[in-house]
Amino acid sequence: MGIAFIFPGQGSQKVGMASVFTNAFKTGHETLQEIEDAVSIKISDVIENGPIEELTKTQNAQLAIFAVSMICFRVLEREFGLDASNSCNYLAGHSLGEYSALCASGCIDLQSCAKLVRFRGELMANAFPDTSDCAMAAVIGLKIEDMEDIVEQYSTGERICVIANDNSSSQVVLSGHKDKVLEAGDKLKQERGAFKVIQLNTSGPFHSPLMTKAMIELDDYISSNITFNKLKVPVIMNIVGKQITDSSEIHALLLNQITGRVQWRKTMDIILNDKNVDKIVEVAPGKVLSSMAKRDYPERDFVNLESISQIEAFMKG
User: Fold this and answer.
1) Which side of the chain, N or C, has fewer Cβ within a 10 Å radius?
2) Burial class of residue 86 (count of CB atoms within 10 Å of its CB; 0-12, 13-18, 19+)
3) Is 112 found in the same domain as 251?
4) Which positions are catalytic?
C-alpha cells in the first residue's frame, strides 16, 4: 500500500484538538511536553482551553497546529508501528504544514522544528504592523489560468495584490494591501465570473512580497540554529510544487515560501496522479486539505486522522 501524508496549515485549528491523542496515549502527552519544553511556552493551555480568538493568533495557531500534527504522527509511529520510511511515498504540507512534513521526514528534529515554527509565527504576526491595511481573500470558482492576467495588473507598484495560494482547480487565494485585494476580487467577479471572493481571517499579507522583512529574519535564524538532516521520505515543497530529496535545497525553499506562492494544486496533482499511491492521509487537525482535493479527485481514497477509531481503521488497512 502506497501512502502520502499531508499536513494542514493555519486555519485548521480548533479548541481541544489535542486531547484525543494526549489523553489516550503516553506518546501524545510526551510529545506535547517535549514541544513545550523546547519553546518554553505552555501552548497546551491555549489548545485545550482557548478561547478561539487566542488560538487563532498567528504565533499561537502555527505552533498549536504543528504540535497536534506531530503528536498524531508520533502516535502512528510509536503506538501503532508505522514505519514511514518503508510505507510512505510522499510527505507534503500546506504552508505551515510543510514544517510538519519536514519534521516527519526526519529532516529537522522535533525540538528544533518547534522553535523554528514558533519563531516563524512570531515573524509573520509582526511583519506587517498595520493589519487593517492588508488582506487575504479566497477566490472561488476560477482556475488560476483564468485570473492570473488580471491579478498581474495589481502586482507592481507601491500597493499590490498577488496570488498567494494556488489551492485547487476552483480555489485561489489573493494577498496584499487590502484595497488592491478587494479591487482585484471585484474585477474577477465582474469580468471572469468568480463565484465568491471571501476575505480570510488572517493577521498579515502572507505569501506576498510584503513579508520580505520576515523572510530576512527567518534566514538569519535558520542559518544560526537549524541543521537539515537527510530526508527519510521525499517531501513535496510548496514553492516549487515538486518533490525534494536533497536537504541542501530546503533552507532556500523555506525562505521563498514566506514571500512566494504555495503551489498546492501542483503538489496534490503529483500525489494523486501517482498510481502507486493508494491512500492520501491528512494528519490531524482538520480535513481542509482532503476536502479541497476531493473536489478535483472524487475517485481517490482520502483518510482523515482526527480520532482513535480513524487511526485504528487506517492502520488495519
Assistant:
1) C
2) exposed
3) yes
4) 95, 207
